Amino acid sequence: MSQPALQVWIEFASTYSHVAAQRVEEVARDAGVALEWRPFLLGPIFQKQGWNDSPFNLYPVKGAYMWRDMERLCAKHGIPLRRPSRFPRNGLLAARVATAAAAEPWLGAFVRGVYLANFAEDEEIAEPECVARVLAASGGEAPEHWLARAASPEIKQRLRDRTDEAIALGVFGAPTFVARGELFWGNDRMEDAMEWCRS
Amino acid sequence: MSQPALQVWIEFASTYSHVAAQRVEEVARDAGVALEWRPFLLGPIFQKQGWNDSPFNLYPVKGAYMWRDMERLCAKHGIPLRRPSRFPRNGLLAARVATAAAAEPWLGAFVRGVYLANFAEDEEIAEPECVARVLAASGGEAPEHWLARAASPEIKQRLRDRTDEAIALGVFGAPTFVARGELFWGNDRMEDAMEWCRS
């Protein structure tokens, strides 16, 4: 029986997803695990919990810790980080593009590029110009094609369905790794998730 | 310059503190790091955030994940776990005893014993009989002496001061490791905290 792919559920506004996104392809390669990106939106999930903002903004003491923890974590892994002037940023457009590009070989580079734009280059990832730049730099041909695809009713619906699927799986934060219905929440659980996938 | 001790801030109702408490003495010994237990209460801190219950109860999806994650984590580390019939349990009495016993050589055994009572033996750690049994099993002589000390105004005030100190440090959850004012939140950060302590 072939081993299942590890699903990587990410939200482009999520800080710890930045760390996970920069690391996960290399960790998966070393572990011999296949990956499937699952871009989704945390906003609707947070709203169900009564939150209309990031919990890191709603609970400033936890937020202050998170930024310090991110500094240490990114330094440890050699991942660029500059605290963005706006947090959280709206990742809807980037999530739609990543949904449309599910089968493209440059998807991983695009995902990493969006996180770098948000969390290392302080760019407005909600803006089409920014997403187009990342697309071009990732090897995605014809950015305008992907932006048009992202705006299609089909892709918009696919991302809504993805977010519903996340809720049905019990996903409540990002990143979340899923293998055979088993959830592993957070960058800290990446290695355990790989292990689970191989077992 | 001698290296600072690593403070281990724990709340007896906290699930991940159970994992940390069972592991931390061995990890610290291997790392050559001295420990200082810091029992405190999360209740007043949660109340400041508008929570009158554990966030794992207030957010059941997160709670369901936590119990599954605890199962995996305890299995991985060989730590006993049985989901308690009551959660969270009131750790006030045990925290007062641990505060009173700060200088006792059996404090670590007592801390581990209280967590095992709560999270492996499903016992009522709020009850003096339970705490007395754990005291006796930990090598603490004269449990009645320690229960009386725990009930003294001096120790009650010392624990309140501790919780105020936790708030001043920016502690928002348990376990939290603190070295030279640097916070590391969660059992997952134990090794990073040891490293920080030695650096």
Q: What does this protein structure show overall?
A:
Two copies of one chain form a homodimer. Chain A has 199 residues and is an alpha+beta fold. Chain A has one domain: 3-Layer(aba) Sandwich (Glutaredoxin), CATH 3.40.30. The first copy, chain A, is 56% helix and 9% strand. Chain A contains ten helices and four strands. Chain A has a four-stranded mixed β-sheet, with helices on both faces. In chain A, a hairpin with a 2-residue loop joins strand 3 (176-179) and strand 4 (182-185). The first copy, chain A, is globular and about 40 Å long. Chain A binds chain B through residues 49, 59, 61-62, 64-65, 68-69, 72, 76, 170, 172-173, 183-186, 188-189, 192, and chain B through 49, 59, 61-62, 64-65, 68-69, 72, 76, 170, 172-173, 183-186, 188-189, 192.
Please summarize what this structure is:
Two copies of one chain form a homodimer. Chain A has ten helices and four strands. Helices cover 56% and strands 9% of the residues of chain A.
